[in-house]
Amino acid sequence: MLIVLQGRLRSTRLPGKGYFTFFGQTLWERACDIALAVRGVQKVVFATGDLSENCLMRPLIEAKGVSFLAGSENNVLQRFCQAIEGYSGEYLVRITCDNYLVQPEIVDGLYEATRRENADYGYVEPLSHYAGEVIRCESLRRCYSGAYSDLAREHVTWDIRSGPDYRKTRLPGDFLGLKHEGSLTLDNLEDLIRMKELERDWPGLQPVRCLEDLRQIVPAV
After folding, report:
1. What are the beta bridge partners of residue 2?
2. Residue 22, SS3 per DSSP
3. How confident is the model at residue 220 (pLDDT cuts 50, 70, 90)?
4. Total domain count, the chain
5. Residue 136 sits in a domain of what CATH number?
């Protein structure tokens, strides 16, 4: 399994958020640890834009044993296709680094379900921030080689998720006992305040595998 992490520093709503910390660790470093904790992972690539400031984090990323790729700043779909060049495996997992509570167990379950159903694309409804996305590499290449949309250019999987020609696996919004709707992420100032409140009140969230504590915060029922 190949995991591709996505992050860049020039976020319009919360610039520099890759440098924000959760329990003393930058979000980009935590994303690397999350990816490396997924069962069966063979390689992790951190795919960022080619602006010089993104490369400031390169030593921290590579210190984790994660490959660093600076591709197109504005065409993220192209960046992902560059990340899978030469990779012969069937699937990749996409994780965005602002999703600091992605759970390796959820990625494991989504990956297995997507493979079992021989799907092109797998996700947890409604595009959970705890799960990442599983994509067949050939489907990603197919999307990039065609007339893809601006939304796919920015969000990578948009055309695959919405296109009728791709086979999808959708896991329910209460998968593994979590309420995935409105799942926690870091996108704006309010999210940052919430993240720091969690850091203060829930020390059990410090390990990347923190599913039991997360269930207490956002139970499925």
Report:
1. 43, 92
2. strand
3. low
4. 1
5. 3.90.550.10
